[in-house]
Amino acid sequence: MAKTATGNGAPRRKIGLALAGGGPLGGVYxxxxxxxxxxxxxxxxxxxxxxxxxxxAGALISALLANGISPEQMARAFIDPRPGDPQFSPMxxxxxxxxxxxRRGLSIPRLFLKSTASYLRHPIRNGLLASYNALTQAIPxxxxxxxxxxxxxxxxxxxxxxxxxxxxLERELYVVAVDLDTGQAVKFGAKxxxxxxxxxxxxxxxxxxxxxxxxxxxxxxxxxxxxxRTLHASVALDAGVDLLFCVxxxxxxxxxxxxxxxxxxxxxxxxxxxxxxxxxxxRSIIHSRMRVGMSKYDTEYAKAKVVLFEPDxxxxxxxFASVFSYANRANVCQHAYQTTRRDLRLRxxxxxxxxEAHGISIRDEILEARxxxxxxxxxxxxxxxxIGLYKNRTTNSLSAALERLENWAAGR
Length: 412
What we know:
The protein has helices at 23-40, 57-66, 71-78, 98-106, 108-121, 123-126, 128-131, 147-159, 198-205, 233-238, 273-295, 297-300, 316-320, 329-346, 348-356, 364-367, 374-379, 382-387, 393-409; strands at 15-19, 41-42, 51-55, 172-179, 185-188, 215-217, 220-224, 243-247, 305-309, 361-362. The protein is an alpha/beta fold. The strands form two sheets. Strands 1, 3, 4, 5, 6, 7, 8 and 9 form an eight-stranded mixed β-sheet that branches. A two-stranded antiparallel sheet has the order 2-10. The N and C termini lie far apart (52 Å). The relative contact order is 0.17.
């Protein structure tokens, strides 16, 4: 895509955002990080960037941004919803996959008879275990059903002034999932696969194997895009982005760097048992792949600049919190908000020339307010106060009126 010209005839630089996965917790972290960046950086609004790339939880957040819904509006809807806002319930992620259980369960008699016949035909050659190995096909492929996520987004995009069609967006959006049968990453939103509804693409990108069943699209089965790469920043760079912001909520934990506080939990991670060991293994693998990929960008995309924000390696709060934790979402959002603000302060000398080259400046008066809370950004946002989550102004006026009525009835 050719760069558009600015008023003085110079080409306008293309800005992009890539968001990684990380479950519901990672999505809330990304919201907090973007609120901090939106507030501290003058010259960029993340719901208005040119290119958005999302994987897993990042796909959901990117889809909302692409529809013009700001991080501040998301925070209101996910953390402190007001009357009339869509109810984004954590149970969307936890609905049992009853249909998958039933389908697999119904296959047991057929598989048992087939296995028994195989064993009786050649009991010595086939053996008992080999003959009945077919019964493993009856094991459900997932614990939960993520169709509620698809339905939530489809409803939001179709009824509230948004769109569920990649081709109707004002900006480029790419949602990455992996084709289960080929192991290849697919960029929904790219030519040839831009007819897939955005909500369906997000469902596919969030289908983490073992937790959610593969999602069928046009006869193909798709799973979580993070299985290939955690960030897929190269998708945005291939789209011609000059400056790419990346947010990655999931990093491996370095127990030796962690402060000696109650958040450290264990002197050795093995003391945490299987869940902690698996979490560290998963985080280490995907983060290592991300670092390898990003190390190549300086040569493969020499003209582009990539700025990454992520938690510290010794961040106990992020490591020991469950990726499906939703009850403490306000604390996670605030933690991400403060971590990103601190990162900006520490890297100011490095980042200022990069940002200034793209017409972006750091707002010192905001960044230096050390005790600031993310809720202050929501209170000071005209979008959140006057427009709300919906792009349809009539609906938002009703939402605001309901909120005022509720406050009046409560005597506030």
